[in-house]
Structures are given as structure tokens and as C-alpha cells.
């Protein structure tokens, strides 16, 4: 099921509808110029019948938390030393750029002067 249907359903809930109808979802999607399939909207409404969005989100969060997380944070620790070592070279690079700019300026005066 596409997220556009779930998003429209939750927008209707945020708008004050505890149990949005298919017509509510269609109205939201049409307002955004989004195409839809009536079957998908009807399926969503059937699956959500008698359920509260807040309860569904809470249930989903516990399942998500059980999967664990992380795994992406381990590689960030090694970056601290490299900038300190490169800091001494930065001044030399800046001086080099200044020299190149001066040479270019001299060339422009020679070409047009």
C-alpha cells in the first residue's frame, strides 16, 4: 500500500476525524492533485475499521524498537585526528592561492595594457 493513502488517512485524523471515510481520503488526495485507486482507499478503510491511529503507531513503535537500531554510528570516531594534522598545511595552501591570484592579475594587465 502506498504511503499517500496512509498519509491522507493520518491527515484526516489530524484534522479531527477519528475514523476517516473513503470520501475524506479522496478529498485530501484530490486537493493535492494526487491520483488514487479506489480499491486501495477502500482496503485501507477496511483495515483501519475499529482501530485508532495512535494505538497503531504505538504498536508499530514497539515492533520497530525490537528490531534494534544503530549500526551506523560506529564509524564516526576516527575523524578527529585528521583535521588537526591538516591544520598546519592550510596556511601554506592559502599562501599558494594568493600567489596564483597575483600572477593572474599581472597577466591580465600585460594582455590588455
Helix and strand layout, with pairings?
Blueprint: H1 3-14, H2 22-31, H3 38-48, H4 53-66, H5 81-112
Written description of the protein model:
By secondary structure, the protein is an all-alpha fold. Helices cover 70% and strands 0% of the residues. It is built from 5 helices and no strands. The protein has helices at residues 3-14, 22-31, 38-48, 53-66, 81-112. The longest helix has 32 residues, at 81-112. The chain is globular, with a radius of gyration of 30 Å. The model has no long low-confidence stretch (mean pLDDT 77).
Write a concise keyword list for the protein shown above.
113 residues, mainly alpha, 5 helices, 0% strand, globular
Kindly summarize this structure in a few lines:
The chain is mostly helical and about 110 residues long. The chain has helices at about 5-15, 20-30, 40-50, 55-65, 80-110. The longest helix is centred in the last third of the chain and has 32 residues, at about 80-110.
Amino acid at each position: 500500500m502506498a504511503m499517500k493513502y496512509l498519509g491522507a488517512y493520518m491527515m484526516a485524523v489530524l484534522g479531527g476525524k477519528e475514523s476517516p471515510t473513503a470520501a475524506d481520503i479522496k478529498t485530501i488526495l484530490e486537493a493535492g492533485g494526487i491520483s488514487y485507486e479506489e480499491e486501495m482507499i477502500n482496503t485501507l478503510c477496511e483495515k483501519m475499521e475499529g482501530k485508532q491511529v495512535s494505538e497503531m503507531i504505538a504498536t508499530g513503535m514497539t515492533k520497530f524498537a525490537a528490531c534494534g537500531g544503530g549500526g551506523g554510528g560506529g564509524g564516526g570516531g576516527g575523524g578527529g585526528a585528521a583535521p588537526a594534522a591538516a591544520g598546519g598545511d592550510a596556511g601554506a595552501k592559502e599562501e599558494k592561492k594568493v600567489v596564483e591570484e597575483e600572477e593572474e592579475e599581472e597577466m591580465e594587465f600585460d594582455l590588455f595594457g
